[in-house]
Amino acid sequence: MLFLCPKCKKELNIVDNTCRCAEGHSYDRAKGGYYNLLLGSSGGAHGDNREMVEARRDFLSRGYYRPLAEKLSSLVLDYTKKGGAVLDAGCGEGYYTATVESALKERDGESFVSGFDISKEAVKRAAKACPGITYAVAGSYHMPVGDESVDTLFNVFSPLAIDETHRVIKPGGHFIMVIPDEEHLFELKQAIYDTPYKNTVQDTHIPGFSLVRQVDVKYTMHLDTPEAISSLFMMTPYAYRTRPENKERIKGLRELDCRAEFIVFVYEKDK
Q1: Does the residue 23 lie in any domain?
Q2: Which of 44, 185, 231, 250 is the most exposed place for a label (fewest CB within 10 A)?
Q3: Is the dihedral of CA 43, 200, 235, 77 positive or negative?
Q4: How confident is the model over 44-64, as pLDDT tens digits?
């Protein structure tokens, strides 16, 4: 098991439906098949709520982000050795986690994938969908993972905890990060706002890492039902940042052609 006790940082051993460390701290396996390793240090954050998780699951199940999932899996295969430990930091409902795990299993059957997210609702969905992956409720700024224990860590649209990311990846290991490009979902913004804005791409330098590869994934999605458009909107931060009168505009859309633009960065941890 990749995860450690969040209290004392010692190894967790699974016995029946409980994982326990040498200090006697124990964590029961929830009915949903995951472990809650989140301590009282989340700063009041609880992650995505049920409505956002359901919307994302509906949207992703329609295959709109499949090109990104396939490219991410390909890159994980390229940079992960046989039998490597892979971690999805901020796994959400596990769409990308499961895709990566399937690719690794097909390649060597020895590499293993774990995932965590601060949203209990999301982790419940992930564990139910793919019980072969070990999932935990935890936060990126307090990863319950040992020092230099991960070969490849990937992060898709989740907060970047630089210090923790550097701590858990092995020297020479890799960090794969996916962020939205400037015009990602721009047509959706045009439909909602009077003055839509482009995304800001921040400085991509990460201390302690060297950028070894950058891949752009860009294509146009045809959202052919109001339900698909609504799910896309509800799974984004726009859902709670947008005024009610602007949200009403979404209800009038029957179909939408919308750009999906991602940047995938591959970093190698300095030795």
Answers
A1: no
A2: 44
A3: negative
A4: 456 788 899 999 999 999 999
Could you give the number of structural domains in the chain? 1
Question: What is the residue range of 218's domain?
Answer: 42-269
Percent of the chain scored above 90 by pLDDT? 78
Provide the residue type at 100 as one letter.
V
Tokens of 79: 């940079």
Look at residue 12 and tell me if it is in a domain: no
Q: Would residue 6 count as lying in a domain? A: no
Backbone angles phi, psi at 54, to 5 degrees: -65, -40
**How are beta strands 112-117 and 85-89 bridged, if at all?**
parallel
Nearest to 128 by CA among 97, 157, 154, 153: 97
Is pLDDT above 70 for 33? yes
Provide CB contacts within 8 A for 197, sequence distance 6+.
Answer: 189
* Burial class of residue 34 (count of CB atoms within 10 Å of its CB; 0-12, 13-18, 19+): buried
Average pLDDT score over residue span 32-39: 89
Q: Which of 9-13, 23-27, 29-33 is the least confident region?
A: 29-33
220-225: long-range contacts (C-beta < 8 A, 24 or more apart)? Answer: 220/257, 220/258, 220/259, 220/260, 221/64, 221/257, 221/258, 221/259, 221/260, 222/255, 222/256, 222/257, 223/64, 223/255, 223/256, 223/257, 223/258, 224/255, 225/254, 225/255
Highest averaged pLDDT of the listed ranges 66-70, 131-135, 156-160, 197-201: 66-70
Domain CATH code at residue 87 = 3.40.50.150
Query: How is residue 195 annotated by DSSP?
Result: S
Tell me the pTM. Answer: 0.93
Q: DSSP label at 142?
A: G
To the nearest 10°, report the CA torsion of 225, 117, 202, 219.
Answer: -30
Decide if 216 is inside a domain: yes
